[in-house]
């Protein structure tokens, strides 16, 4: 008999796109279906590295753009073996943000003197995450920054500015178009009602969750 493993599902999106709301609805759905699961959130602000990231995002500390990018990546590597072990034990893993956010946000930083010049090249941003456990499905919650702003407006964190969010949206679009074979990349209209979004997400991953996978956990961009 072939041993099966559980799927790794990543939920990505812009600020206020509903990731927190939808990852908990997806988790509730898995509970209802008696599917063992674990919900992770990146950045994981509880670790030593996560605390440095938290303080940077809240602008209580300053870090070089290269350094913060590498810290976000290190924060994922801290959990890489945990993710792989859970999947192999049959536990479906949901991640609220992952390496795609890492690239999209860092590659969207631009020079103050010229907003058309990126501070960090796209390929450089991708490099530290090469080899992380690869998700089997990425659900990208797409929403226009103007609509996201109506959900309470952008808060105080560093990247919560409309021009930045617009560049991030473009970067995510590119990442989705270049998604590897074997990764299901689903663009979900996050501007719809909560329940409609939740149903679309569940419909996209239900078969994966119910059937499981025989292929070993993949490696990102390898
Ligand atoms: N970042 C990075 O640079 N590099 C990396 O590698 C990683 C992250 C991993 C913090 O992320 C920052 O870190 C983030 C990217 C960067 N910067 N930005 N921007 P985070 O994930 O911790 O925080 P966040 O993106 O700011 O999440 P959020 O503000 O909590 O938004 P959300 O989780 O997507 O949305 P929500 O809390 O579920 O919903 C927002 C509001 O909308 C709330 O009032 C809901 O009740 C409402 N809502 C939700 N769904 C709906 C629908 N369908 N209709 C109407 N209203 C809704």
Automatic annotation (TrEMBL):
Pathway(s) served: Pyrimidine metabolism; dTTP biosynthesis
The UniProt record lists the keyword Membrane: no
Record InterPro entries: P-loop_NTPase (IPR027417), Thymidylate_kin-like_dom (IPR039430), Thymidylate_kinase (IPR018094)
Pfam families in UniProt: Thymidylate_kin
E.C. numbers: 2.7.4.9
GO cellular component terms, semicolon-separated: cytosol; nucleus
Chain ranges of the Thymidylate kinase-like domain: 11-199
Any one Gene Ontology BP term: dUDP biosynthetic process
Family the UniProt entry places it in: Belongs to the thymidylate kinase family.
Protein name (Swiss-Prot/TrEMBL): Thymidylate kinase
Protein source organism: Ephemerocybe angulata
């Amino acid at each position: 008999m072939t041993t099966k493993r559980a799927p790794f599902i990543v939920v990505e999106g812009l600020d206020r796109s509903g990731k927190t709301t939808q990852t908990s609805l997806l988790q509730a759905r898995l509970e209802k279906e008696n599917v063992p699961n674990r919900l992770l959130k990146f950045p994981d602000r509880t670790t030593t590295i996560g605390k440095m990231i938290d303080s940077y995002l809240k602008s209580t500390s300053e870090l070089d753009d290269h350094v913060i990018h590498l810290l976000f990546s290190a924060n994922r590597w801290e959990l890489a073996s945990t993710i792989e072990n859970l999947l192999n034990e049959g536990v479906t893993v949901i991640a609220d943000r992952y390496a795609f956010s890492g690239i999209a946000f860092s590659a969207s930083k631009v020079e103050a003197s010229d907003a058309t010049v990126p501070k960090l090249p796209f390929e450089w941003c991708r490099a530290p995450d090469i080899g992380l456990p690869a998700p089997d499905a990425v659900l990208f919650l797409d929403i226009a920054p103007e609509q996201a702003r109506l959900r309470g407006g952008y808060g105080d964190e560093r990247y919560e500015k409309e021009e930045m969010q617009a560049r991030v949206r473009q970067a995510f679009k590119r990442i989705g178009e270049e998604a590897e074979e074997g990764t299901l990349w689903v663009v979900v209209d996050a501007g719809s009602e909560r329940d409609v979004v939740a149903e679309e997400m569940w419909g996209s991953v239900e078969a994966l969750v119910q059937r499981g996978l025989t292929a070993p956990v993949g490696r990102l961009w390898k």
